What we know:
The protein has 391 residues and is α/β, with parallel strands linked by helices. The chain has helices spanning 18-35, 76-83, 87-103, 106-114, 117-145, 149-174, 176-191, 195-214, 228-240, 259-263, 269-281, 328-334, 338-343, 357-362, 367-373, and strands spanning 4-10, 39-44, 54-61, 64-72, 219-225, 250-255, 285-291, 316-320. It has an eight-stranded mixed sheet, with helices on both faces. Helix 3 crosses helix 7 (176-191) and helix 8 crosses helix 9 (228-240). The model is unreliable at 384-391 (pLDDT under 50).
Amino acid sequence: MIEKRLVFVFPGFEPMLAPAHMERFRRAAERSAAVWQADLRLDGASGAPTLFPSLRADLSGSGWRTETELVFCDWGDLILAYAARPAIERLSSGLLALADFLVTGTVFRYCQVSWRYAFFFAFPIAVMTAAIWIGWAVHAALTALLPGLAGSVTGFVLGLLAALALLFLAERRWHLLTALDDWALARDLCRERNPALSARIARQAEEIAARAAASDAGEIVVAAHSLGASFAVLALDRALSGDLKTDLRWHILTVGSSLMKTTLHPAAKTQRAAVRRLVADHRIAWTDCQGLSDPINFYNSNPATSLGIREGRIPVVVRVHFKRLVSPGTYRRIKRDFFRLHRQFVLAVERRCPYSFHMLLLGPRPLADFAETRAVDVPPLAPAACEGAAP
Length: 391
């Protein structure tokens, strides 16, 4: 039973700062705690804005109580810096990044490790291709209807407007530019081209080392969602390169991880070496949660063996079924929105089920138990089957 826990939270790629992630965590944790009929108190840290704001959580039930300090390792300002660029720069840098991942053969490695991720790679290309085709079709049609200079000019203008309209729709509905920013940042992280990313990882490592060294928590967790896993691995590896020693308290939790997105790039030698050291040298327990319905995570991969690492403490992979987490109505609403589905890893659950991000980080059982049982819904949380869920 865990009475005190320290958690370092690395959010995924979203253009929002730590306070917004903390507020989302607060709302989702309260809803999830209510599902298990547990009492939750959350207190936010006061003071000036910081890169590492924290929440203190107190979750309790019949005969047990767990205190958790959650430290949010913010990198949202770096994402917002990419989003603040002119649209044409975001578009061009994102397409250049896609070309990089294609020319280097990284996309083909995606297909070998988790072929469904190739659809996420192809999404921006498909949108751009459709925009060009529609623009050309409008131009060709008007040129045929209105011969001469008038037809050419009208066709060009209306074709361009049609293409831009599709791109605008793709941005509003499917966050096209955000997806391209994601690829641009991932490329910069692989090639270590952006000093701001490296500096932030170094600062995160310092914070992990300082807080962990001073902590008497029974469990220390580094929890990361999506592309945050790439930052978490680099920061933890760097933190452990100093005087900080690992012991049985440590656990890495990655959910909906995009770690393979960067580590499979040939230039990402630093990241692959970090994974190897965490697994083979430090032998830290690692649980990786994946969902078949989510096209943005690397389903059926393994953080170590997919990189050819077979010695040390191999991470445990746990499959998450989104249908079991939410009501049938909610699942019908979100199942075709792949960004919303991807966020479900860190959102509230609506019924008792094997997986809950918040019960894992705030509950009384160590993460090692979840890795073994594949379920958070075990004593002292009331053991109940997923209501209405498939067995």
